[in-house]
Amino acid sequence: MPxxxxxxxxxxxxxxPFGEVISAKPETMRLINGGTTERFHALFSPEVSxxxxxxxxxxxxxxxxxxxxxxxxxxxxxxxSQSFSPLSGRPFLVAVSPxxxxxxxxPQVFLAQPDQGVNYRRNVWHHPLxxxxxxxxxxxxxxxxxxxxxxxxxxxxxxxILEPHP
Length: 166
Ligand SMILES: NC(=O)N[C@@H](O)C(=O)O
Ligand code: NI
Known about the structure:
The protein is about 0% helix and about 50% strand. The protein contains 1 helix and 17 strands.
């Protein structure tokens, strides 16, 4: 029987070991443009390393995952952070793992709401984008440049997510 993973609600506190939750946090807000605009300031700082590295902004158009869904692998980006911010008004799933001696530990799965994004800090184990329900677009801020920025790990036994909600 595969090892079942439960799904948690995404909160800044629970996600803190892995990166930041991107959301309109009241404590970050400052009024600008003559009071007509609320600026939620400096929610995270993209990280890039290595000569010739640059921060880039992308759009990822994700196909929805089918459930039950097997988490058979995790990846990480040793040379830069990677953030996902929903553009299609859809929730999505986030899976992250602590590093255990150079390999990912048991994944933790979160359901991100349409008004939440995530930033994976550099070298944090995560599963590739998991859109839910419909094709979904995401604004992705990550690293471009020379060097290998992708490390993958494949589990001997996959984990299973039965349904994409807590
Ligand atoms: N390959 C790629 O750019 N995407 C992954 O890094 C991902 O986390 O979805
Ligand atoms: Ni990635």
